[in-house]
Amino acid sequence: GLQVPDKKVESVCPYCGVGCQLTYNIKDNKILYVEGRDGPANHGRLCVKGRYGFDYASHPQRLTKPLIRKAGVPKVPGETIDPARVHEYFREASWEEALDLAGNSLKKIRDTHGPKALVGFGSAKGSNEEAYLFQKLVRTGFGSNNVDHCTRLCHASSVAALLEGIGSGAVSNPVMDVTQADVIIVIGANPTVNHPVAATWMKNAAKNGKKLIVMDPRKSDLSRLAWRFLQFKPDTDVAMLNAMMHVIVHEGLVNEDFIKSRTIGYDELKKNVEGYSPEAMAPICGIPAETLREVARTYATSKGSMILWGMGVSQHVHGTDNARCLIALALMTGQIGRPGTGLHPLRGQNNVQGASDAGLIPMMFPDYQKVIEPQVRAKFEQMWKLKPGTLDDKPGLTVVEVMHAAAEGKVKGLYIMGENPAMSDPDANHAREALAKLDHLVVQDIFLTETACLADVVLPASAFPEKTGTFTNTDRLVQLGRQALQPPGDAKQDLWIIQEMARRIGLDWNYEHVSEVFDEMRHTMPSIGGITWDRLERQHAVTYPCVKEGDPGTSVVFDHDFPREGGVARFVPADIIPAAERPDAEYPMVLITGRQLEHWHTGSMTRRAGVLDAIEPDPVALVHPLDLDALGVQPGGLLTIESRRGKITLYGRADDSSPRGAVFVPFCYYEAAINRVTNDKFDPVAKIPELKYCAVRVTAG
Ligand code: SF4
């Protein structure tokens, strides 16, 4: 019969960076259904993940007891443990025993091999408070800046370019500003799949006559609605964007006042784009010169033009250069600093913005305060009550570098909270070997992930609806997620686990409530200084920068100044750098990886969500129908995709959204983990790997 909820809890969606507000309807410690709430980003709307992807929390495979690897059981890279046979690999333990073993083992590594032999990976799925405490644990307990999370695989390059160019790594304008823009460029993003509710505002804008320009090597639902769709050749972003800038310079469409009063470095940029005429770039990027001219003119001359981008821009060895070009376009035309303009890197995870803000990155303390600056370290040493000179003055290792250091035996101990690098890291066979080689691996998660299969100690954590905390969406909106369920069995809240681990490695912490952590954060992070816990409880959401109490929060920034030296932005020119691995006779096709609407990242949650897994149950590769024909494979038939690093077998789906010669594979399927095939070469500035391009061979069967 119809079940009536006995409790309603107001929270936010655990999946993407759009940050939809929702209401959990609960009965007997189970979510019955989810409804959209009238939040600033979603106005009641939810996508299929937010609405139906909740029952993972009560899945029978949830970890409910701490686990310790059995003596003598080897770590086999690539092995996924059948949930029915967990007891052959691990034994259940008390919290006391598991925490003591984990803490003592890591401490011993630190004391024997030095702080740099330890690393912590936090998670963009956790709250701001979890991220903050986790980085504080690594910096003050492990004793180095070896802390990172999946922003490294996501928008690290966008953030690097934004910090360098305009002084802030976050968006300048919220997604909802598409309703006020006349021209909207969406480049290297597939928002109907990855930011579905945000995509609805973009679609409406297009239907209302705004000029939507989609630029992407792949077709998408959004490109069908576009005023112009530039299906450029994979890996040719810089050629295309420099050509647009060339047009803007040559046709006198630059905003001279803006350039003069608010920027530096224009002459260098102007000189650089000189060699990139649309006629010269057309054969490289595959877009006719006249289209490049038309789009450049339209962007430059509209009353308000906005650029939104995703991983198609960022996940390249030249990801930082790609973002530099987008920034330069906005600066040379003055299309920033007003509603309906600006730069918006669409953030992926629900809290990747907040986790980065909270300092879960190796080169910066909370609020992007640089670890290399002595006065910054002195300030944090004072706030964290440390002896002067305690904090490490060198940036730590990034995600991909950590795997290399572990393979070389330099990193020996790793504490992972909520991430799954065995699935998400490029060249995952190598990453799994590196994980297996560690002296001690502690994994804190809600399921026995592919990474946890290689752990020494597994700590059963809490799912999103089982805890309270703040989460920052792609619009810089700090929102409150509230606890709706009790964790199952002996599973504990992550904040408690971090604190217990901190105690074991010698830190004397005593935070009783999540709000105390938030309060400490706002005193160390000027941008959220004015946001109080009380206000969040009342208002549910506040946008930063919000510097003083009573400050309403600022959704559109840079109207007068840029937060850089002298208050001015900086142009940084970019030249063409090819992908690290190009197709050749042996590996003739291009592999592009990404996501699917129904599944989230490494699949640990959504593949255990009944409705979502029923819609997309099997690993698929999206291949152009003519390529599939040429391979002699029927739609739905088996394919093998192989690179110099690894191979997987999965089902081929005929799909003309990819151009011929390029195959698209989502990275969420453990049984066909595509990251075993991808390349781990990375952008030299941001250390983001090239997940959007490598050479593969595709064969039938
Ligand atoms: Fe959740 Fe994103 Fe879907 Fe909104 S758009 S319901 S935040 S997954």
From TrEMBL:
Reading the lineage from the top rank, the first entry is: Bacteria
Can you name a GO cellular component term?
Answer: membrane
Alphabetically list the UniProt keywords: 4Fe-4S, Iron, Iron-sulfur, Metal-binding, Molybdenum, Oxidoreductase, Repeat
Q: Where is the 4Fe-4S Mo/W bis-MGD-type domain?
A: 6-61
UniProt entry tagged with the keyword Protein biosynthesis: no
Residues crossing the lipid bilayer are: none
GO BP term, pick one: formate metabolic process
GO molecular function list: 4 iron, 4 sulfur cluster binding; formate dehydrogenase (NAD+) activity; metal ion binding; molybdopterin cofactor binding; NADH dehydrogenase (ubiquinone) activity; NADH dehydrogenase activity
Q: What are the required cofactors?
A: [4Fe-4S] cluster; Mo-bis(molybdopterin guanine dinucleotide); [2Fe-2S] cluster
Q: Which family does it belong to?
A: In the C-terminal section; belongs to the prokaryotic molybdopterin-containing oxidoreductase family.
* Name of the protein described by the UniProt record: Formate dehydrogenase subunit alpha
Which species does this protein come from?
Ramlibacter albus
Taxonomic lineage of the native organism: Bacteria, Pseudomonadati, Pseudomonadota, Betaproteobacteria, Burkholderiales
Residue numbers of the full-length protein present here: 221 to 921 of 942
